[in-house]
Amino acid sequence: MQCPKCHAPMHTYNRNGVQIEQCSGCRGIFLDYGELEALTRLESQWSQPAPPPPAAPQAYPAAPSAPAWGAPQGGHQGGHGHYGHHRHKSFGHMLFSS
Amino acid sequence: MTADTDTDTDTGTGAAPGTGPRTGAGDSVLVSALAAHARAAAHARAAVHPRSPAAPCVCGSAPLADRDDATVVRHGGTVAKAHAPDTDTPALALRVAVADRLPDLLLPPLTPAAPIRLHGRPVTLWPYGAPVDPDDPDAAPWEAAATLLARLHRAPVPAGLPPMRGPVKAARALGRLRAALGTAAHRADAHEAARAVTAAWAALPPWARSAAPMPGPAALCHGDLHLGQLVRHPAPDGPWKLIDVDDLGAGVPAWDLARPAAWYACGLLPPDEWARFLAAYRQAGGPAVPEDGDPWPALDVPARALTVQTAALAITKALAGDRPLDEVEQAVVDACARMPAVPSQYPGPSRPAVPSRLPGPPRPASGFPG
Fold first, then answer.
1. What is the ipTM of this complex?
2. What is the distance in angstroms between the Cα of A42 and the nearest Cα belonging to chain B?
């Protein structure tokens, strides 16, 4: 999906079972219905000191290196990028095109 | 097999009959002539069926591709390809001869001799090979593709072989974009996207823009790798081979890795598929990247160039279709927009005209001319 504010592509992340879309351009975050409540609920459970940092490295498998001009999340941190669970039709076409 | 003036899905010589030929879009006389040529060759080859040559046959002819630059028709196990009208025919003959010499890597031609001409187009004959299923790109043979490329890059470069045409194709894509923009003044979105693409293009070193010879040492390169360039031969389950020698030549081998690299960098190709491709290439001793460590210093410029080329063609296509860029196309344009701010990692200056203030490694003797 595209960011409603700056129209850059948004990448989906899973944080403790909550799907979060973050814009690769302006870094804005999109929450579906009920997700804010789910996050608030999770936050209230983190009463222990030193909660894990938001970019907990164990959330991502090690990804191959990528250039700095690449997609902010897709290529770098093993996030969902544009590939997600099924290949985008347009990319399927691109794979076979000069 | 090539699609250098077209961004439609490239079905090569191997596409299954009926997978989207744009019949009627091109020269139907040429298609008929090609079909007759392929039919005659098919029947001469294997006595497909014992009838008189003039009798109707049951093999059937199917156009596999019909574009400005290539028309491909299959008859039984034989495929006839009419190359672009502006093809350098002596160079094509040299390229076809390479395929004839490396039959384990490249689909060997049925006609190793000089191409014949039909309707002003050079025509070559090939055996049919089974392509990658366009509906199942998850089954893409990344390891096979990488291994074939590594072996191709390690093969000696035949004397007199022309340069690999990758940079020429990239420059041509930018030319098509400029032409399309010229007739679409009302499309502010396309002009904005095109500004990012042309700025990224301008920041590339001259050799990647086909404005200077490629740096050496030259390797034998395919020049236009994508998933439409792989077939199994003999069909349906023979070993994978590379097809389409139109852009094959001597050049920078990293160019052949640059499309998958660009797709990965743009967040389109999943990391595991890129990792499989790269690992198989290294495993097979491919010379385009170091054996281990960061491959991006070698891949950076070609991957930028292929990203720019892809973005330019995407905008051109969106203009032709009178539609906005889709999400995938926008991702490629966005990558172009980020490029000028990031210095090139290639071991050499990205803008040789601007002297660097920083001490850098000595430039290799085979570095960028000009």
1. 0.81
2. 30
